[in-house]
Batch of 2 targets.
Target 1
Amino acid sequence: MKLVQVRKDSYYDSVFLMLASRGVQKLPGVTEAIVAMATPMNLDLLGDLGFDPASLAGLTPNDLIVAIDADDEAQATAAAQEALAGLNRKKADTAQGNGLPRVPSLGAARRLLPDANLALVSVPGAWAAREARKCLEAGLHTLVFSDNVSLEDEIALKKYAVSKDLLLMGPDCGTAIINGIPLCFANRVQRGAIGLVAASGTGLQEVSCLIDDYGAGISQAIGTGGRDLKNAAVGGMTSLLAIKALALDPDTSVIVVVSKPPAPDVAKRVVAALRASGKPAVAHFLGLPPSPDEGNVAFAANLEECAVLATLLADGRHDLRAARAALAEGPGDDRFRRPSLQRIDTLAAAEAARLSPQQKYLRGLYTGGTLADETLFLAHAALGGARSNNQTDPAWQLADPLKSVGHTIVDLGDDIFTVGKPHPMIDPAARADRIAQEGADPACAVLLLDVVLGYGSHADPAGACVEAIQTAKAAAAKRGGYLPVVASVTGTRNDPQDFGQQVRTLEAAGVIVMPSNYRAARLAIAIIQAAAHARRTA
Amino acid sequence: MSDQTALHGLFGSDSRIINLGLENFAANAAASGASAVQVDWRLPAGGDQRAVAALDKLAAGAKVDIEAANAEGLRRILAAKPTIVGIGLARDVVPGMAQDLILHAGPPVSWEKMCGPLRGAVIGGLIYEGLAKTPAEAEALAASGQIRFDPCHHHDAVGPMAGVMTASMPVWIIENQTFGNRAYCTLNEGLGKVLRYGAYSEEVLERLRWMASDLAPILSDALQAKGPIDMKSIIAQVLQMGDEGHNRNRAGTSLIIRELAPYLVMLDYPKEKIAKVLSFLNANDHFFLNLTMPSAKCTVDAAAGIEGCSLITTMARNGTEFGIRLSGLSGRWFTGPAGVVDGLYLPGFGAADAARDIGDSVITETSGIGGFAMAAAPAIVKFVGGSPQDAIDITKRMYEICVGENNVYQIPVLDFRGTPTGIDVRKVVETGILPAINTGIAHKTPGIGMVGAGLVKPPENAFRDALIAFAEKYAR
């Protein structure tokens, strides 16, 4: 079926014509489609293709021809209509999704934002060092979120950064708050006088959120990357530069350092730098027994104490001794609404009374690595040993990270769980599965969870695990027991997730929500201890 | 660190962020009140470790001052003053031209490896020169080894599409009046069945003969009467009239007719002959292309051969391979397979008919017009994907791979910003942003002619190989 339509005196540029032809050729049933001006050459062509010469008579190059060869008349007519419509169609406005200015290169970005002072690098690890160096060379302070950067590259980058008085946060730095702007995985905390330096991601989040909750605020929070203090060759280059900068910062009155155990020599230098700052300072080295305070430097025993001490020191009314005195736990909840250890013990006893005798073990399922470590250190000491994929002692490492044995604290953000999958803070589905798995284990006595809010995290991490929690609780009930579930929510009231709603969601599912990971861990451990005591006395 | 402030005053100021990687990080920072720019990051050199190593070696230190060499290259390109000074016969004016020599577009290629359109043009050229009587005879001669083939670029010349130039063809003579170097190009034959698309029928040869017997002498006489024509000024004008100097030449052709018409009508030729010349020019929008090409050629040639200069001074295709040459690596071609043009087709043709990318016309892009000036040519933006914004984006992207901006060629819609000029091979490889090239599409079968036009992606490996060779020579 050959159809010819003509529009007299309708000039179109050949490009538009070719485009219209192309669009129509794809339509069903169309074997040939020519949308063209009636030039002698095109008229010849149409004649050669067998279109009716009568329908082409008397046309001039100013006339538009739509010639369609299709299987049937309906298809031909539809194609001709589409061709004419196509000629007049404007390309739909392609609005830029989030309104961010986008440029093809670092150079173009610098031209667009000439006074830029900070670069975020989250490109694949193999390329991160190269990009970070270019950012540093451009005079930008640089946060490297990417991991898998070699130790050699980290050392070279940090040496270069220090020589230019530039901050190189990371590699593998998941969080920071610079000038009130939360970066990567960070929370919206109020601004204040406490400067944080942290070699641990969720450690920084937990301390900054607790400080916010206690009514104080953060001046700057600098992530350094996990190796900065731990590795003697890196030598705390970023931490030391950050401490010096906070010492000089008029908006910072208290300096806090949070880290996994540093290399001994590095720890000495960090403490020396804190002492030299002349400002009240708090240090917390996870897993190390707290040393006695030194001059202006307090050593906190856990993340929560770190936040409490910093808050007290920042109010200008407490010196270190007064802060220590105010810290002492009384029988009731304190001014920071922390449930007292005495109340925790009472609560634990009530929960333990509902367990069946075969329920013995603590199971901590964590999305935040530092929070997992904090719990692991507490549980390992209090319960005579706990297994974990984060254990450094091979005797206590999990043989199969997918299976809990005895008291087990799992860091689900570990590489062994995240190959080819999103981190559980982004997508908590993997943890939901693990919660159900623990619920099916008759020996599981307490489930302990973290819920981390803030930018970068899942939009509803509590909601993402309640169904699994209910399943686990139901399974325990079916066996004639009861499964206590304890959690803490790391976040602030200004985070993109609704903090209050997250807590309510958990509580509605029967979860006991504690105000810090430390308290949550203490409660979970106390339940295990109370149950063990009950078994012994029975 | 000073006594008063550390970290260059980072603390206490506002965070102004450049984000390379996960876009959410920039969006979240912006949502918290920071200014943030997202870099569309891609693997440097497409992840080619050798090319990245070459980039890093050059960045770490070079034997010569590459920036200074590139500045000199750019200075010469900007100072160039291409001027039409006459028309002559190839054998009389083109360096090294000879009866047994056929010049062609692109990097060197043997008869065996030539694509269909180039073979067709060679056949036509041999018949035109009287060296063969029939196509079969011409093919045998071409394959016999008695005919030499060489790129136009080796003879200060350029040719569109197949780019075949033989000794008896008339050529434009363009002189760069700043530096005295010249470039040559045949006269444009028009559209349809033409030699440059590989056609060699009697109709094609007849037209070529008329071009030598009538068109060239008449235009040459008019040119003699008028005197030299400043091409730089005309190209500057056409960019403000909707041409980009490669795929759209309507304004340029019109301006040339306007320049020559008063002198043409005063010549002592029969009116019919002059009228035929004017009609021929009028019927061929691309007549001006054969003037922009040698103008661009003598412009960038002035920047060739500078020690340590990483600017690209040649890009060209022969339908089999795409090749480039660098200023600082004289005499060396770096090639990759000629691409398939992403384009739109004339009535009756489709992608299955297309030959691979061919022609020296990409010399226009090399000099900073053509695809690089796409934003100036909204009338043909459909070739590049649709909207005028796409064309603007293409030109803006080209600034990322150039060391400078033209002082005379300007783009109205970019607030008369100069066109991106001086392509630095280091920037091409680093960013992975390949030169944007507008081009016509030839039918893959010799003798049919132009079937469409569009945008073509040059092979990335040619740029990487050139960079690696550059680093071998110049990195410390």
Target 2
Amino acid sequence: MSAHNSQAVERYRNDFLREVEERVEEGQWVKMCMQCGVCAGSCPFGPHWQHSPQKLFMMIRAGKRQEVLSSDSMWMCTSCYNCVVRCPRQLPITHIMHGLASYAHRLGLAPKSQPTREFATMFWNNLAKKGRVNELKLTLALYFKDGLVSGIKTALGMQSIGLGMVKAKRLNPMEILGGHGLKDLKGFHAIIAKAREIEDKKKGLVS
Amino acid sequence: MKASIATNQTILVVGGGIGGMTAALEAAECGKQVILVEKNPTLGGRTALLYRYFPKMCHPTCGLEINLRRLKGNRRLRVLTQAEVTEVSGRNGDYTVKLKLSPRYVNENCTACGECALAVSGQMPNPYDYGLSQIKLAYLPHAMAYPQRYVLDPAIIGTADAEKANSACKYGAIDLAMKEETIELKVGSVIWATGWKPYDAAKIQPYGYDRFANVITSVEFERLADPHGPTGGKLLRPSDGAPAKNIAFIQCAGSRDENHLRHCSRICCMASLKQTQYVREAYGDDCKSTIYYIDIRAIDRFEDFYRKVQQDPTVGFVKSKVARIAQNENGSLILHGVDTEGYHRYATEHDLVVLAIGMEPEANGIKLPDDIVVDSSGFIEGSKDGGQFGAGAAASPTDVNRSVQSATAAALRAIQVVHKTAAVEVA
């Protein structure tokens, strides 16, 4: 268990709803849910995940902290906004889903091998290094995330697309040697560090 | 109608539905001069278009009959149909009201024999069946119509049908030269009993009211059940006329929804519970009604009715707001959603879907006097100067019973206003 998680457990005890209200993006909306079920029925991914938004909101109110934060359901959200436009109470459900996912990630409770989480982490680390996404490295990292054999298989399968992109100057093979980035890298890293500090302070995640 | 009859001791009631009739009668029976104006050719409003009332399951004709008798016997009450208020000026105790009187093209000689309707051939969608049937351009709105006189629709004027109607009438009752008139009245107080209208169901996109023939509203279902309605009281599907024995009722269709009507319309739960009993009445045990709901709001004595319906084996309850409706090849509908009791995903087929449609103030979309205060849904609270009042379903979503209570309260307030005016004049 991460230090952040122990601190949160200590602080909120059994009041998970309050924890969500204070620390999760748009979490203050959770109490407005009237359990009508329109979000669950409107979700195109509905049949493929365990906890619908409606169910997650009820679990939050019931204090099922461990189950909610380790659920992989909110990671399945594709941001189609079907639930948001149909919700009779106008809850920003998509944003709450992302808020829950990112909070679970910060506490180290999100499911380890959840593909969305893996890719999001990969994308962020790639971007945060130089302030620009290195598409070649990101693509290769994604292909090889499940090991060498499957990586080579995927890479070969995507070969013609990759070559086409090189020809059309959409992909630069030289990016493998470090790649392009921002001019003031030091300044960029300082901005990111400061933003994280402010965000953590707002959420009470200062360790 | 002479303008001089009205004085600042007169109470004007706008709207001749059950609320307006009640307010007008209560005030008139207290000895006040009352003018009741109705924009349609008949009194009775939407109440006259119901098949039965909840919870006693009696017919609205009974209650309307009593009110019409009271009304016919009261000399202080004047009724103006096809009359619309276009302007209210002045202040508490001293208003000037402008009325637009549309021509009926039929005078007092009419005996409601119906010869004119037989003579004409032109038709229009019948507004008293919510457009589910056609009605002749010379028509009697419905069996309970008051005044019991035929009406010519303005579309008939200048056509051969108008002349046919004229020559078919044996009583000289048809007057094609009638013109629109504007009159002015002095009144002391105004009661707005302008009522409600069903929310536009087509705006609830996932339910496909505008795309699927067998998705109808609860007010249309009332017409299907009514022996005077388009199907002669048979519960038939609009698409193919097949008996609808497996019916879904969707609650909160428009109501309690920030994207549509933000208020609870209050009547719809009881209306759907009542309508399940129409289905049982029509088919006995050989039918199935399913109510999809967020929560059933059947308050105080209505709880008994809810319990009774719960015990009916032909009625099922699913705690879920339906997410969307799809149609299959035979016109049946598949309801998709997730229920709240166990979070089970369902896709259930029904012959017919009845949307328990929300109540919107009829006055939404017409211009009220500037002084009138409405709530966030458009229901009328009254005027700032304290001389005008909302009553019945114009003031809040009400069933017939509560509309009558609200109208009686509004009548008392209006009486107090004209009493004060009288006292000032005496002094």
